[in-house]
Amino acid sequence: MRRLLVSIIAAAGLAVGVAAGAAEQRTWPGVKESDFTLRDFHFRSGEVLPELQIHYRTLGTPIFDAKHRITNAVMILHGTGGDGSTFLRPIFAGELFGPGQPLDTRHYFLILPDAIGHGKSSKPSDGLHAKFPHYDYDDMVEAEHGLARDGLKVDKLRLILGTSMGCMHAFIWGETYPADARALAPFACLPVRIVGRNRLWRRMVIDAIQSDPAWQGGEYKQEPSQGLRAASDILWIAGSAPQQMQKAMATAEQVDETFQQRTAEELSKLDANDMLYQVDSSRDYDPSAGLEKITAPMLWINSADDFINPPELGIAQAQATRLPHGRFILLPISENTHGHGTHTWAVAWKDELARFMTETEGK
Q1: Are the C-beta atoms of residues 97 and 28 closer than 8 Å to each other?
Q2: Are residues 48 and 118 in contact, defined by beta-carbon separation less than 8 angstroms?
Q3: Inside any domain, residue 257
Q4: What mean pLDDT is predicted for residues 251-262?
Q5: How far is CA 362 from the centre of its chain?
Q6: Element containing residue 203 per DSSP (H, E)
Q7: 225-238 and 272-280 are packed helices; what angle lies between their axes, rounded to 10 degrees?
Q8: How many domains are contained in the chain?
Q9: Confidence class of residue 24 from pLDDT cuts 50, 70 and 90?
Q10: Burial of 225 (0-12, 13-18, 19+ CB in 10 A)
Q11: What is the gyration radius of the CA atoms in the chain, in angstroms?
Q12: Predicted confidence band of residue 67 (pLDDT cuts 50, 70, 90)
């Protein structure tokens, strides 16, 4: 049943990375891990953190030009609740990082950071709890930019590839630092303010946690398990892929057993403050006014079975026309799509990425 559970969780394509592939292998040859500290980091809220730690992984070897600038760096940005190790899973790394693949580590220097509030980077559960600065996406992008520029001495990234939350970060990067990436590949998002159902399920997650009597304003002694249980369930549905789940959970018994095992696994590792901050960080995201500022070539891909970014809204198709050098692709539902989580199932879009890397070579 353990193997079945892994298959079902992966097939669900969890939107926000909280449990996506939790039991899957997340290793890859040659990975190096390190930390970079940004000092006196000023958040847009006005709060300041004397030391903001950003954890990151690298693969491959940097290539330098005559001015000793790295020319082959690719930054890959994860989704809400995830971390850089998400991209070491076979469904991603196994399709992209090997010899002859689109992000072959023999040719590219890959940077996989943990965003603020995620993974091994600074986050509320480190000790500040609800007193941790209330970061947003702009803060997260500023920290990612600081890691690249000051931590790794990368003036211009060869590519920024972002999934889900990372997709939204890629749009912010393109507007805020238009000269600092040669190409952008945002997968599974929309470049508009989060409203409607997308904002509603996020509000539900936050409310579920804060309504638990054990919450205590974020200074709980034990995790508010009822709130976390409800929040985790909402996230699972938000990232669901009906076609894949119908196959993976084909009997009532499989549904019940999968639900019970997944819930137990999730509650054993989630932190309520971290989750609340992660979901709330999207509160003021809205790059829609400045899309024309994005001058880098862009490959933007969504999938038709995405609960969070449903294609019937027509938003992506309308906004894509405003991108000076952008191309939007909507993947039809198929055996290779996994709802919102299609962004991490590289088999669904790796050929498009390979073509894009060839097109943007030398730009």
Answers
A1: yes
A2: no
A3: no
A4: 92
A5: 27
A6: helix 196-210
A7: 40
A8: 1
A9: low
A10: middle
A11: 19
A12: confident
Beta pairing class for 184-187 and 298-303: parallel
At residue 158, the pLDDT reads 98
Cα–Cα nearest to 259, from 12, 79, 81, 83: 12
In a domain, residue 173? The reply is yes
Confidence tier at 191 by pLDDT (50, 70, 90):
very high
Q: Give 298's strand partners.
A: 184, 326
**Domain residues for 74?**
30-193+290-359
Q: How many other CB atoms are found less than 10 A from the CB of residue 61?
A: 12
Q: What is the pLDDT of residue 26?
A: 79
Nearest alpha-carbon partner for 72 in 134, 145, 191, 155? 155
CA 71 to chain centre: 24
Average pLDDT over residues 83-99: 97
Residues 16 and 81 sit within 8 Å (Cβ to Cβ):
yes
* Both structure tokens of 191: 């470049």
Q: Does the pLDDT value for residue 81 go beyond 50?
A: yes
> Is residue 17 assigned to a domain?
no
131: domain CATH number is: 3.40.50.1820
Half-sphere exposure (Cβ direction) of 32: Cα atoms closer than 13 Å = 11
CA distance 62 to 141: 22
What is d(CA 361, CA 363) in angstroms, rounded to the nearest whole number? 6
CA–CA separation, 107 and 250 (whole Å): 43
Please name which of 176, 185, 140, 139 lies closest in space to residue 158, comparing C-alpha atoms.
Answer: 185
| Tally of CB atoms within 10 A around 65 | 10
CA pair distance 7, 62, nearest whole angstrom: 35
From 137, 220, 195, 187, select the one nearest 339 (Cα to Cα).
Answer: 187
By the 8 A CB rule, do 13 and 342 touch? yes
Which structure tokens are listed for 4?
């079945």
- Kindly state whether residue 156 falls inside one of the protein's structural domains: yes
End-to-end CA distance of the chain: 49
